[in-house]
User: Which sequence fits this backbone?
């Protein structure tokens, strides 16, 4: 080789080696030594109790417990645009769970998304939020999980196509989207607001459902809380683009998040019902803090939005308006099947809100409304909670579609939905029974002292 070409080759080699070293540093983490499972007596009871509440706020059970299965034994299929990922067994079983994980290994998983062996974990496990969690809270979560019943349940194989089935590819995702920050308080705000921000942005990962995602499955930072998708549901916008007719405030948010119902907004259903089921069992001060912070996220609505909401409520009072003339089929189904509960001012459990107050009807797509009409709203065992029958067996897709289009025209000021019939068909296919509120499904029973029921 001549002088200059040797120089070029040298530079190329250095660049390649440097690149490989950087890639290696990002991709590779050492395994953290396995420990002897510490056993439940190794943990302080107060710490375990705190960990229980934190686990409820983090919805660990919603993803790590299969309905009807053993607590935290994993195996839940989580659908993503790239394929299906199965949640892990996070009971302290030594062979198939996290029994041999040290607290350090657990904290590394929560903060940086690595398993004990040093492999990357898929961000379906919402560590892009959990990275925010403090050392003390991770310690309490660890104590709670390590004192659960160990369950022997081997991991299920993910169903992902190439290249998404290559765990090292997650390194690139992390480089682009994972921010390693524990929460930094904002001194301009109250302690309560800061507590709420810490929980919402971190452990409670509200944005994981309520923020739209980009093509690589990461939340779009520029559209935080602008509305997202989860399973067969739309998680409504909660920022200033909220479509709620009556604007949300801290008190309404508190009632909705704690009890799953507020007279100006109606009930929480589907995946949100599971979130509420968990929040109803944690200290009310934490739910209050979340509500205070979220009230700031939704901000004072623009005069335009306020007018729209008021106009929708006004328009809904008239049952002989243009909507009814344009869609006689929908109008007559509503009058016979729905109005007696939704317009008569009947008390709970059967009285539904005036539908002009329902975000489901003002929502950008009709999925949630189709789910509600087909499946209804189920009562929670032993509680005086809202009940609505499902209409899946008594209405055809064409009837449900006519009804949905009518509700949209009569109870919102939004343009008509397109592809209502297709949405109804999809909803019928995906239909599963869901609860208004699931009973606290944790290993440790909820503290009855903390459940203030109305
Ligand atoms: C939205 C669903 C979801 C939620 C909520 C969730 N996880 Fe997970 N978690 C997963 C999935 C899916 C995996 C498997 C990821 C993989 O295989 O790469 C996982 C993996 C883990 C792991 C790694 C286990 C192992 O053996 O590698 C730990 C630890 C964990 N989760 C703890 C928690 C804790 C603690 C909470 C609550 C604070 C929680 N998760 C909440 C979906 C979730
Ligand atoms: C697992 C996904 C998921 C998570 C996590 C989640 N939500 Fe939701 N949320 C939803 C869905 C889906 C709906 C719509 C439910 C319906 O139609 O009843 C919803 C509805 C809501 C509504 C009602 C909005 C309206 O205008 O009617 C509020 C408020 C809300 N969520 C707040 C929160 C907060 C605060 C958190 C975090 C503590 C949170 N959500 C976490 C999925 C989620
Ligand atoms: C037996 C009484 C009853 C009947 C009949 C009934 N509903 Fe309901 N509905 C309820 C109750 C109770 C709720 C829960 C409280 C709430 O959210 O309004 C509810 C909730 C809803 C919601 C959610 C409102 C929100 O955003 O929280 C919609 C939409 C709805 N019903 C539509 C209908 C339609 C359409 C029909 C007719 C096909 C119907 N309901 C028939 C009692 C009833």
Assistant:
């Amino acid at each position: 080789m001549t002088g200059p070409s040797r120089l070029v080759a040298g530079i190329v080699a250095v660049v390649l080696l440097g690149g490989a070293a950087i890639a290696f540093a990002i991709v590779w983490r050492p395994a953290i030594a396995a420990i002897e499972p510490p056993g439940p007596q190794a943990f302080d009871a107060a710490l375990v109790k705190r960990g229980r509440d934190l686990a409820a706020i983090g919805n660990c059970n919603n993803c790590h417990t299969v309905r009807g299965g053993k607590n935290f034994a994993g195996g839940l299929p989580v659908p993503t645009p790239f394929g299906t990922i199965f949640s892990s067994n996070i009971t302290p079983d030594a062979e198939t769970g996290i029994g041999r994980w040290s607290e350090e290994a657990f904290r590394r998983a929560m903060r940086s998304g690595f398993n004990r062996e040093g492999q990357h974990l898929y961000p379906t496990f919402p560590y892009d939020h959990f990275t925010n969690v403090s050392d003390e809270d991770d310690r309490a979560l660890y104590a709670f999980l390590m004192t659960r019943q160990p369950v022997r349940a081997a991991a299920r194989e993910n169903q992902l196509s190439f290249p998404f089935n290559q765990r090292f590819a997650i390194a690139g995702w992390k480089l682009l989207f994972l921010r390693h920050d524990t929460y930094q308080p904002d001194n301009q705000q109250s302690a309560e607001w800061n507590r709420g921000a810490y929980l919402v942005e971190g452990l409670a990962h509200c944005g994981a459902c309520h923020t739209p995602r980009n093509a690589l499955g990461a939340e779009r930072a520029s559209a935080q809380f602008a509305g997202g998708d989860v399973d067969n549901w739309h998680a409504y916008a909660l920022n200033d683009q909220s479509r709620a007719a009556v604007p949300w405030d801290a008190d309404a948010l508190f009632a909705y998040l704690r009890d799953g119902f507020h007279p100006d907004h109606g009930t929480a259903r589907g995946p949100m019902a599971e979130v509420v089921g968990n929040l109803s069992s944690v200290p009310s001060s934490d739910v209050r803090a979340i509500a205070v912070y979220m009230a700031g996220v939704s901000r004072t609505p623009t005069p335009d939005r306020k007018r729209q909401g008021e106009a929708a409520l006004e328009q809904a009072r008239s049952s002989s308006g243009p909507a009814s003339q344009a869609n006689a089929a929908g109008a007559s189904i509503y009058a016979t099947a729905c109005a007696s509960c939704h317009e008569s001012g009947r008390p709970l459990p059967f009285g539904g809100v005036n539908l002009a107050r329902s975000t489901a009807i003002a929502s950008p797509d009709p999925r949630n409304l189709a789910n509600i009409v087909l499946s209804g709203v189920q009562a929670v065992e032993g509680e005086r909670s809202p009940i609505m029958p499902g209409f899946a067996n008594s209405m055809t897709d064409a009837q449900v579609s006519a009804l949905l289009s009518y509700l949209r025209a009569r109870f919102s000021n939004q343009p008509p939905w397109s592809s209502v019939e297709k949405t109804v068909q999809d909803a019928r296919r995906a239909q599963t029974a869901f609860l208004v509120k699931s009973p606290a499904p944790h290993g440790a029973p909820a503290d009855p002292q903390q459940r203030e029921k109305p």
Notes: The longest strand covers residues 77-80. Confidence is low (pLDDT under 50) at residues 433-454. The chain has three domains: 20-177, 191-301, 319-430. The beta strands are 77-80, 83-86, 159-160, 228-230, 233-235, 261-262, 266-267.
